[in-house]
Amino acid sequence: MRFIKIKTRAFLPPKDDIYDLLNRIKKINNGDILVITSKILGIHQGRSIKINPSVSKTKLVKQEADYYKVSRIKQQKFMLTIRNHVLALSAGIDESNSNGYYVLLPNNLNKLLKEIWQHLRQKYKIKNLGVIATDSHTLPMRRGTMGVAIGFYGLEPQKDYRGKKDIFGRKFVFTQTNVVDALAVGAVYVMGEGSERTPIVIIRDAAVQFTSKPTYRKLVMPLKGDIYYPLLKVFGI
Question: Could you list the residue range(s) of the whole structural domain that residue 22 is in?
Fold first, then answer.
């Protein structure tokens, strides 16, 4: 499996054209997975708000979050949020590499990814293609950021081991591998978090199952059925 970085021009808020970047990619092969950072998808939709004293980021976070909770650590205030089934800071609103704008997460993300999927399949005359949108993410009790898939189209999100046997013949009861988030972690690591200008990565030769059906709901765990629900109750769910 290979992770191929696609270096691009600066993608400029408040609004820019994602298809201008995608159409510059020289080659996408049948069976590739295209990973795109959510920031440029948000900019593509014009989801950018100029930072100035009259704009309250706290109000923006409350507006964008499905659930939110204020957290204070060492007299610093943080907004813990859940948006689109992902636990994140500040509802994914980003200020880095944004040229003086708040960039919000894209709306109707899986619909947008399907449109990109259709465009690229037609342009490169390929059948099997996956498209994943990523965001930076933190884990409780771990320092640093990593990638998480916040939307995807064209591939099955899990590898299911339930009913199969382990190396000692014991049947798996619960185990399912989260394929899309595993791919997102590798892609975001390759993209970088600074001035690399590589918001797109092509994953080649990944062992995934492709599909033309929407599969996002297969990955989503209902909040009240989640093993971590006792912790998530702080959001008033």
Answer: 2-235
